[in-house]
Amino acid sequence: MAAAARCCPSVRVSAGGSRRAVPRRRTCWQRSATSERFRGSCRGFSWEKRVGDGQNLITEDVTVVEGDVATISCRVKNSDDSVIQLLNPNRQTIYFRDFRPLKDSRFQLVNFSNSELRVSLTNVSISDEGRYFCQLYTDPPQEIYTTITVLVPPRNLVIDIQKEIAVEGEEIELNCTAMASRPATTIRWFKGNKELTGKSEVEQWSDMYTVTSQLLLKVGREDDGVPVICLVDHPAVKDLQTQRYLEVMYKPQVRVSQNYPVQGLTREGEPLELTCAAFGKPQPTDMRWLRVDDEMPQHVVVSGSNLLISNLNKTDNGTYRCEASNAVGKSHADYMLFVYDPPTTIPPPTTTTTTTTTIPTTITGFTQLPNSAEELDYGDLSGTGVLLNASTEALPTVQISNASIALHPDSRAGEEGAIRSVDHAVVGGVVAVVVFAMLCLLIILGRYFARHKGTYFTHEAKGADDAADADTAIINAEGGQNNSEEKKEYFI
User: Fold this and answer.
1) pTM for this prediction
2) CA pair distance 219, 249, nearest whole angstrom
3) CB of 125 within 8 A of CB of 106?
4) In contact, 161 and 50? CB cutoff 8 Å
5) Measured between alpha carbons, how far is 332 from 321 in angstroms, rounded to an integer?
6) How far apart are the C-alpha atoms of 94 and 460, rounded to whole Å?
7) Nearest by Cα to 139 from 44, 258, 7, 248
8) What letter does residue 319 receive in the DSSP assignment?
9) What are the helix (H) ranges across 151-203?
């Protein structure tokens, strides 16, 4: 395939950024069979990108927030010291190599070399948005463009609420407006930590966008003092939000508590005290007690939020109501009273005492028994002993140890009764039995020791073990009477 050749006049850049053709010098290039080259126009540098081997230009698109700094970079692969220049969207030369023909001081040279031209643009505005061209003077010339996108955050964020003060159960309307942003913002709603869904509308003014989001919210008493937050999602700004606190009025919430008795049943003859507590917005100003379906008993005392019945009876049974009201409405709480019978009295148990022996003696040292269960110390009666002295008979002093006296207290509906008096005859019988038992024991021990003497050994002859007594043993001993003198007993 034959190569086709074309020629264009070379271009010279003036100090003002304009370009003019120079006839005396021409640049020619051709399309070959092995490489597809750029095509161009002799009047301007509008080139198609080269495909294949050779030098290449590299750049990136730039996104910047209005008022910030944008940096444009034109880089060259496999540089051969060709000239690099940067043009603005109007095709005016910003930089030719390291020289700035354009009289805009916001453009500043950051870096220049054979392989890179880097320029910064300060205080970026909407008018700076567009395509910027990087050109490389090669054979053929090369061109690539980068796009600058300018972001504009919302100018103002406002929440409008339909009613400053709402009543429980009402539906209120809230509107959040984000004005003059680019691109359009996304608005999100939150009530406390819970996200809500609103309805948004977008209006465009020139290159700017205004977004309004509407939220319909039904409020309750739990929403009082809770913040409603309008949050903006926009690439130019983070955490931009505004909030309004809800103010909700609601009718009173009433609660009745029992002060006395704290726990247990309400019995006849006992007192009863109730307290009424009410909370609302605004705070309740009117509070009163009444008896449902009946008149309030005359002996009931009502003092503010307290109700007192000093002496309950069966006629007090019924439902007692506490009512509270404010500007929003009225509420009540009920207390159902049922009076139970007083504690029943249990008769004392009947005890039977059996006496086997009676000794008419007078006991001294035990003059009076305790009158109540609190005065009786069971630990002192068991194991320590009680000393009793008889005055009419010469009896030895006897100490009774390990004696236990079982007393049965009289109980009446959980209360301890008094201990019945103990018959003196019973105490005397116990002493007589103990003394008689000790005398019998002494007599038995004396007879036992008298019949059982100590055991000793003698030098008697063999065969004495089979004799009935000592004389027979001596007669039957070996040697008869001949050895009688040798066998003697020695008593020590």
Assistant:
1) 0.55
2) 10
3) no
4) no
5) 7
6) 157
7) 7
8) E
9) none
pLDDT at 208 over 70: yes
Task: Please answer whether residues 211 and 185 qualify as being in contact, where contact means their C-beta atoms are separated by less than 8 angstroms.
Answer: yes
pLDDT at 477: 58
Distance CA 69, CA 53 (A): 35
**432-455 b/e with 16+ CB inside 10 Å = b?**
beebeeeeeeeeeeeeeeeeeeee
Record the tokens describing residue 206, joined without a space. 């020139």
Q: Does residue 81 come out as left (phi exceeding 0), alpha (psi in the -120 to 50 range) or beta?
A: left
Name 203's bridge partners.
Answer: 210
| Euclidean distance between CA atoms 479 and 467, whole angstroms | 16
Q: Exposure pattern of 206-219 as b/e (b: 16+ CB <10 Å)?
A: eebbbbbbebebeb
Question: Tokens in use for 179?
Answer: 């004005």
Q: Is 135 helix (H, G, I), strand (E, B) or coil?
A: strand
**C-alpha dihedral, 118 to 121 to 124 to 128, nearest 10°:** -70
Cβ atoms of 392 and 361 within 8 Å: the answer is: yes
Q: How far apart are CA 375 and CA 385, in angstroms?
A: 17
- The dihedrals phi and psi of 123, each to the nearest 5 degrees, come to 50, 60
Per-chain mean pLDDT for the chain: 75
Beta strands in 32-170 (DSSP E): 56-58, 62-65, 70-77, 83-87, 93-96, 107-112, 116-121, 130-137, 142-151, 156-161, 166-167
Query: Which residues of 186-329 form beta strands (DSSP E)?
Result: 186-191, 194-196, 199-205, 208-218, 227-234, 237-245, 248-260, 272-281, 286-291, 300-303, 306-309, 318-325
Summarize the confidence of residues 369-398 as an average pLDDT.
Answer: 36
Report H helices in 119-219. Answer: none
How are strands ordered across the β-sheet holding 330-337?
Answer: 286-291, 318-325, 330-337
Secondary element (H or E) of residue 3: none
Q: Are 130 and 148 in contact (CB under 8 A)?
A: yes
Least trusted range by pLDDT, from 144-148, 170-174, 310-314, 392-396 = 392-396
Tokens (6 digits) for 394: 């010469």
Q: How many residues does the chain have?
A: 492
Percent of the chain with pLDDT over 90: 55
Instruction: Report whether pLDDT(320) > 90.
Output: yes
Spatial distance between the Cα atoms of 87 and 130, rounded to a whole number of angstroms: 11
Which residue is listed with tokens 């008697």?
A: 460
